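Summarise what follows for lecture notes:
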Amino acid sequence: MKNIYLLVILVVLAVISVSIGAADLMNDEVNILLLSRVPRVIAVIIAGMGMSIAGVIMQQLSRNKFAAPTTATTVDAAKFGVLISLILFPASGSLVKMVTAFAAALLGTLLFMTILQSLKQKNTIFVPLIGIMLGSVIDAVTTVIAYRYDLVQNISTWMMGNFSMVIKGRYELLYLSIPLLVVAYLYAQQFTIAGMGEDFATNLALNYHLVVNTGVAIVALITALVIITVGRIPFLGLVIPNIVALYKGDNLRNTIITTALFGAVFLLVCDIFSRIMIYPYEIPIGLTVGVVGSIIFLYLVVRRRGQ
């Protein structure tokens, strides 16, 4: 699908999203739009773009189509960082929590990449399983510490993917994702070359480790920003790059804009569905994306095994 079509669809969905809500726009139209509905749409678009780009970068660098922030330890490590911030800096704002989550996500992702480089067998399914197992260990440690400090409910609330609490003044950290997306676009060709392996990249005079560390930092920071602002959104960074790659190939320079737009469109569709299914109440976006994403993921697994 051409990017212009995706952009038009995105604009149409944004208008539809702004028009949905339990409050009556006729009573206080401007305040409702500016304080709640427009910020929510912006947050959905940025989060959808950010997590999709983070997923495609992870897949390029790990050379595995099933690698993503949710299957490469990044999200679980970020969750551990949020817990540490709640314990050490209980009165701190979102910025401190974001920095702590970013540091933990960066270390967790680097640990996953280190383990990945030491593997002799890099089967398509085996690699994400390693990430899931490592993430489960980190998640278990997080849960034990959370029980010790009576923070299980707090950490669960932080991780619940939900855009209903997005209002003006509580989502602006997501704007930091925009320059990260620009950097990802500028490095797209380098990420593609790095994904061909260290020896190949070195022969092309590419600083392999610098490119990989840059990509990991982008993934970790985007993940931390999304988690701190709206919580965990499963499968988004996993399925969107795979769907785009089916039609446009694996050259990141050619697919990165399409991936970002398609990720935003996909998340907006899920958000609209979450808000109208049991209107005037809504389903957490994490649940909706999890159900839809898991179905797509199973299809991708079956399709790849049949090739």
Notes: DSSP finds 13 helices and no strands in the chain. The chain has a mean pLDDT of 85. The CA atoms of residues 48 and 266 lie 7 Å apart.
